[in-house]
Design brief:
472 residues; 22 strands; five-stranded parallel β-sheet; FAD/NAD(P)-binding domain; alpha+beta; 33% helix; 15 helices
């Protein structure tokens, strides 16, 4: 005789909410789904706020429109599922720049996360060394091989391409260094091509050809009203019980199910469920898994070694500033600035432009290994950002009428080579020992809203399969 399924989703970020929604869509109608979020807010790094009377993103600002195969991304599919497709907005200004040698230079086209597919196009910002990219008689990478992005690109195109193009592009996404980050995780299409192509130029072109984009097709999208509308709609549509300020401190296997210990140590609550989706960062997940059994402890050690970078997002509301017609700019670490990227929000996103002339400019601060820079007070960070923006733009910016500093401690995973293999091994061990326990989120599958949505949905599908197979 079957009984009603009880599923716990630990983590109320977009991966956890996507898992809850997929459970609602695919599991039996009477399934009890509960989302446990340790903070008071859902959405993780999706957070829409208000500044100077207008909306602004204090976390992620957009999602990719397409998946690597060329179809709609998982984020776009989720937006449609929630009836929000009419709210999708695209950048009004798509051209970004690099701050190089004290000047803003347009980011050259034809690159793959900064790795050039046309060496002539990048000559305005970096001098490649094409003579090093020789055909050695075999593929650049062996089957399953993974290397640091920087090592491969430096060996083929030279230091300037890495330092002035690839490193700032990766730094804008991961706050990490090209010399440390895994090629297979951060550039999977290029890694696949490098296992068949004999030159890096050929690999970039092959990766680009595998996912062609029509001229003028938008790369990014966001939602009118902010990305928090996506969070709220997913939470509501999931029909899940949402528990905020509910930290899951322990996870214990009991029979064919699980016992969660929730809340403070002085007044714990014990909840029994049939299955669990762990949609939390790698280190909290590893702590919950460490005491289950020896096999799982080994898996926990694999995923718990993942390191994270911290960043701060400083947003300034500036009265009628003189800004270039750019979406923003990236800053190579070699420039010696605190800012690593900046977005001209009300220029990039036309639907956010204001009749009063106030412009919203956001800067990202913090690179991996430089966390000491983030120990400055908010006022110091804001003043430094204002000063550096003025210097990069070569014009004194007006004093801000409002500002906001959003700190994201330990927010961005740093995927070192072999990350995907370590995660696969950990998941295989978990599946063998505990098929009703699944991992989801950026710590395992990569950053970006589409990847996190897909990760949560996949975990939910695997939970459903496991519960069906158990006869529950």
């Amino acid at each position: 005789m079957t009984t009603r399924w009880r599923v716990a989703v630990v983590g109320g970020g977009i991966a956890g909410l996507a898992a809850a929604l997929r459970l609602r869509d695919r599991a039996p109608a009477d399934t009890e789904i509960t989302v446990y979020e340790q903070s008071g807010a859902l959405g993780g790094k999706l957070r829409t706020g208000e500044l100077a009377g207008g909306p602004v993103e204090f976390g992620a600002e957009s999602f990719l429109m397409r998946d690597p195969a060329g179809g709609p991304s998982a984020a776009v599919a989720l937006v449609h599922r929630l009836g929000l497709a009419g709210r999708i907005r695209h950048p009004s200004v798509g051209q970004a720049a690099l701050a190089v040698d004290g000047q803003l230079r347009p980011i050259p086209g034809g690159t793959l996360v900064g790795v050039p597919g046309d060496l002539e196009k990048v000559a305005t910002v970096a001098r490649p060394t094409p003579e090093a990219d020789r055909d050695g008689g075999g593929p650049l990478l062996g089957p399953g091989q993974d290397v640091p992005v920087g090592a491969l690109v430096r060996s083929r195109f030279g230091d300037e391409v890495v330092d002035r193009l690839v490193d700032p592009m990766l730094g804008g996404v991961y706050a990490g260094r090209a010399d440390d980050l895994s090629l297979a995780t951060t550039m999977p299409a290029l890694a696949r091509a490098a296992r068949t192509e004999h030159t890096l130029l050929g690999a970039v072109r092959a990766a680009q050809a595998a996912a062609p984009r029509a001229p003028g097709e938008p790369v990014f999208g966001t939602l009118d009203g902010g990305l928090s509308t996506l969070v709220e709609a997913a939470a509501t549509a999931s029909g899940a019980t949402i528990r905020r300020n509910a930290a899951v401190r322990e996870l214990t296997a009991i029979g064919t199910g699980w016992r969660l210990t929730v809340g403070p140590t002085r007044d714990p609550e014990h909840v029994d469920v049939d299955a669990v989706v762990l949609a939390v960062p790698a280190r909290p997940a590893a702590r919950l898994l460490a005491d289950l059994d020896d096999l799982v402890a080994e898996a926990a050690e694999r995923i718990g070694g993942l390191d994270y970078a911290s960043v701060a997002l400083v947003t300034l509301a500036l009265p009628e500033p003189t800004l270039p017609q750019l979406s923003g700019f990236l800053v190579p670490g070699t420039e010696g600035l605190l800012i690593k990227a900046s977005t001209f929000f009300t220029t990039k996103w036309g639907h956010l432009r204001r009749p009063d002339g106030v412009a919203l400019v956001r800067a990202s601060v913090g690179r991996y290994g430089e966390e000491s820079q983030l120990q400055r007070p908010d006022e110091d960070l804001a003043a430094t950002v204002h000063r550096e923006l003025s210097a990069v733009l070569d014009t004194p910016l007006p004093a801000p009428v409002d500002g906001h500093v959003q700190r994201w401690g330990g927010a961005l995973p740093q995927y070192t080579p072999g990350h995907l293999d370590r995660v696969a091994a950990a998941r295989a061990a978990l599946a063998a020992a505990h098929p009703t326990l699944r991992l989801a989120g950026a710590g395992y599958d990569g950053v970006g809203i589409p990847v996190c949505v897909r990760s949560g949905e996949t975990a939910a599908e695997e939970i459903i399969t496991a519960l069906e197979g158990s006869g529950r």
